[in-house]
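Same chain as my last thread, 274 residues:
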Amino acid sequence: MKKIIWFAMVSMVVLLGACSSGGKETSNDSKKEVIQSIQDSGKLVVGTSADFAPFEFHTMIDGKDKIVGVDIDLANEIAKELGVKVELMDMEFNAVLAALQQGKVNLAISGISATEERQQTFDFSDNYFAPPQKMVINKENANELTSLKSFAKKKVGAQKGSVQEDVVKEQVADAQLVSVAKVPNLIIELKQGSIDGLVLEETVANSYIENNPELMLADVDLVSSDEEAYAIALPKGEEELQKKVNQVIQELQSSGKMDEFIQKNTELAKKAEE
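reply #2:
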């Protein structure tokens, strides 16, 4: 009887061990590298907030609403390198990184700066654009708003979730920060006088000023840092995808195509508002 019981117990252990081993092999077999997964799906899913001309914005092409911009051209070049097409997910800026963290998108490309805080959660590509920060105001207030001190107790806008919020907090400390999700809404508030100033990256600021002649850049100095340069956000640990992305960025910069993207989309943004 003892032998029978002992044999049954050994058999059970062997059976359980086999089941456990088999399950582990199945798990490993089903696990795919992210690049292979992207290629298998045939698409690179990119999160962006298309209200940031000339980097990402809506315009009409052949009677259809399209999302275009420097970042979109960059996304298309990365997709081409991977042999797939781009699928864009347009959302509010402060939701873009959340979508990346939740696995809803493969990359976040939306004028994103690789701040120390963000680097704790995400990996980033090499920087592809270093934007000076500028203050946009109404021309009618040009004689009044001539220094950062003149913005004391004034309302200064910045896009919600952006580094421009930190610029206001740290460099225009006596002002009241007004955070809004969409840049076009901030432009409207500035034109209506609901806010007194708006911090934007220079290229974006000039794009909106071109189409809103009552606005201008204030003659005040805002300090830019390396943390404010734009980079592509990736999930933590995706080193092979990061290498591919950096390879594309380096090729675009060395060939001059990145500058071409900026010039082309700046002109396109002007036409979009005509």
